[in-house]
Amino acid sequence: MRRLEGNLSRYLLFGATLHTPVFVPVVVLFWTERGLDLSDVYLLQAVYAVAVVLLEVPTGMLADRWGKRASLLAAAAIYAIGFVVYGFGEGFWWFLGAELVLGVAGALFSGADSALLYDTLAALDRRDEFASWEGRSRALQMVVFSVANVVGGLVATWSLPATLWLSAVGPTVAVFVAATMVEARPPVAAATWAEGWERYRALVSGALRFVRKHRRVRFHLLALALLTGSSSWLLWMVQPYMTENGVPLWSFGLVFGLYNLVAALFSALAHRLASTLGDRATLLLLWVLQAAPLLLMALFPSPAAFLFVLGQQAARGWGRPVITGWVLQHTWEDKRSTVLSVGSLGGRLFFATTAPVVGWALDAWSLSGALLLQVAALILAGGLLAIESARIPEKYLRVKPDRS
Questions:
Q1: What CA dihedral angle connects 394, 396, 397 and 398, to 10 degrees?
Q2: For the chain, what are the domain ranges?
Q3: How many Cβ atoms sit within 10 Å of the Cβ of residue 209?
C-alpha cells in the first residue's frame, strides 16, 4: 500500500519533468528561420495530429493491456530522442519525420497518465480526490512550463536549436521517474498473438461502443476535444501576432511563462471552482474564456494585446482536470485509458481537419481575419454542444463503480 501511495508524488514529478518545453515560445521563429511559412507550420502540426490520431487508440490499448507504467516510460524515452533529432532539422520533410517521432511519444502518453492516477486512487479508495490530484499535477506542470519558457526566450537570443535540445532534458529525467512507479491494476498478458489481437479488437470496439452509447461521456469527450483542439489554433499564432505588434524577442519567454502561471493557478483551483459553479456553469465559462480572447485580439491589436490570451490559458488550466474527472466517473475501470485516448483522438482530429483552414486564412486574409474565423467556429460548436447537453437523459448521470 505504501508503494502504491508513492505513485501519487511520482505522478506529480513525472508530469512536471515529461514536458519541459524550452522551445515553445520561439519554435515558430525556428521553423521560419529554417524555411517554413505559416501555412507550412499549420500543415506540419496537422500531420502530427493525424499521426497521433492513428496511434491514439492502439497505444491506449497497450496501456490497458501491457501496463500504463510501461507506456509512460516508453513515451518519455521517445520524447527525449525526438527533441534531439528536431534540433538538427532543416526543411519541412526533416521536421515532418521528427514530428512523427514525437507523435508516437504523444500517443503513448495520452490517457495513460490520468488512468494510472485514477486506478491508484481507486485502489486506495480515494477516487474522489482525482480532480484535486489532477489539478495539482497540471498546476505543477504549468509552473515548470513557465520556467522552461523563460529559459527558452533567453536561450533563443543565442541559439534557436538549443531550445529544442534543452527540451530533451526533462523527458530523460521522466524515464527514471516512470521506472519507479507501480501498476495499481496489473495488466493480464495475452497467451498468444491471436489472443492479443482479439483482446485488442474487443477493447477498442467496446470502448467505442461505450462512448457512442453513453451520451454524457460522449458529450464531455466532445467538449474536451473542442477545447483542446481549438487551443492549438492560437498556440501557433501567438508568436507571429506578437512579432507583428512589436513585442521584442527576448520577452517571448516571459510572456509564455506568464501564460503558464495563469494556467497553473486555474488548474490548482479547478476542483474548487467546478464544485462551486456546477457542471453547466463551468462549461459555459470555459467556452467564454476560450472564445473571447480571439475576438479581443482581432478587434484591438496592440503590443499589450497578448494579455487577452490569458483567458484561454485559464480555460487550458481549468478544463482538462475537471472534464477528465467527469469522464472517468462514468467509465468502467477496464476502459478508462482507451476511452481517454478516444477523447484525445477527437481533439487531435478536430485540430488536424481545421488547422490547414486556419493556415490558409492566415496567408489569404490576415491575423485578424483568421482570429475571427476561429471565433465563429467556437460559437457554432458551443451552440451544438448546448443542444446536445439539454438532450442527455437522467440515467446517464450515475457514477460507474469499480468492478472488482
A1: 120
A2: 2-397
A3: 11
Which residue's entry shows cell 480555460? 315
Q: Look-up: residue for cell 467527469?
A: 326
- Alpha helix positions (H), 180-278: 193-213, 215-235, 238-244, 252-268, 270-277
Q: What is the pLDDT of residues 244-301, one digit of tens each?
A: 999 998 899 999 889 888 888 888 888 888 888 988 899 999 999 999 999 999 999 9
Q: Which three cell numbers stand for residue 114?
A: 490520468
Distances (CA, A) of 2 to 10, 116, 122, 219, 358: 13, 16, 14, 37, 49
Domain 2-397 -> CATH class: mainly alpha
Instruction: Report the alpha-carbon distance of residue 107 to residue 340 in Å, rounded.
Output: 11
Query: What are the CA-CA distances from residue 6 to residues 113, 140, 179, 253, 308 (Å)?
Result: 15, 17, 12, 34, 39
Tens digit of pLDDT for each residue in 107-141?
A: 888 778 888 888 888 888 887 888 788 878 877 88
Q: Which three cell numbers stand for residue 252?
A: 517571448
Cell numbers of 397, please? Answer: 448521470
SS3 label, residue 356? helix
Positive or negative CA dihedral for 13, 15, 17, 22?
A: negative
This model's pTM is above 0.90: no
Tell me how far apart the alpha carbons of residues 13 and 182 are, in angstroms, rounded to a whole number. Answer: 14
Asked if 148 contacts 167 with a C-beta cutoff of 8 angstroms, the reply is yes
